[in-house]
Amino acid sequence: LVPMSQILLPTELCVELKHAGGSVLSARFNADGNYCLTGAHDRMVRLWNPHTGFLIHTFKGHTQEVTDAVSSNDNSRIGSCSADRTVMVFDVATASAINTLRGHTQRINCVRFNPECSVLVSGSNDTTLRAWDLRARSRDPIQTFTEARDSVHTVFVSENAIYAGSVDGYVRCYDIRMGRMVTDFFGDPVTSVNLSHDDNCLLVSTLDNTIRLLDKDSGQLLADYTGHKNTDFKIDSALAYNDQYVISGSETGEICFWELVEGKLLFQNKAHTETVCSISAHPKLHCVLSASVDGHVKVWKRPGDVQPADDDDE
Known about the structure:
Blueprint: E1 12-17, E2 24-29, E3 36-40, E4 45-49, E5 54-59, E6 66-71, E7 77-82, E8 86-91, E9 96-102, E10 108-113, E11 119-124, E12 129-133, E13 143-145, E14 152-157, E15 161-166, E16 170-175, E17 180-185, E18 190-195, E19 201-206, E20 210-215, E21 221-225, E22 237-239, E23 245-249, E24 254-259, E25 265-270, E26 276-281, E27 287-292, E28 297-301
Antiparallel strand pairs: 1-28, 2-3, 3-4, 4-5, 6-7, 7-8, 8-9, 10-11, 11-12, 12-13, 14-15, 15-16, 16-17, 18-19, 19-20, 20-21, 22-23, 23-24, 24-25, 26-27, 27-28
């Protein structure tokens, strides 16, 4: 491990979100990092100010555990999915449900908006990936992707492509402009897929205790990252906002940090008592959001960036 004196990583606890919902399966910053969303075993989606710990609103509607919840880029809507086989869309301003989208036949694991916030994409244990047009009156998906041979656990949507990771060991890239599919085979179940902020690299987590960085266009392996434990559970990995380092949860309760290019393990932060299943990197700051099946959600910043608590604040 590299001595902490040589690096400045977000390893200091800033805020803990007081969450009474059992296991927390999803925690995501919104597009500007001023708010975050959590989804939990108690069937609720919660909107927070992660920098103060203030709970802004609780969104209800799912009948089983919430597996993922994300904000649209314009912050006007929330998309969530659940083990109840539905995708829900909430209006933030009115705190009301706009749509309940049905079509998946098994647990839904992941959901993402496209950059224009006009389409929502979801992946499920029913092996399908479905795209929902939020502008259309119809509540049927505009497209269903059936290429996966096992559960779809993760999805990332960019300007021109949809990336889906499946338990069958494949990452499938659906090129929307060219109308073609490109696949990368990893051999082990894929649990997390993200695109680097410079749009050049793909970060992929698999259930063999390994995270890999690939060239998005050629598929060439650029680096791999090991030292965490991930053999049984869906765990997020992420890139820092400036792509300097890689972050992941671990089944042993740590948040792990690696140097991007050389793949060197920089630090393991014992953050939770159980599996850290969800990790979100702030879009503009060295700040990390972590959620665990231990029921806790925590916000981490760099030493020196954490502001002392104001006793006058409620």
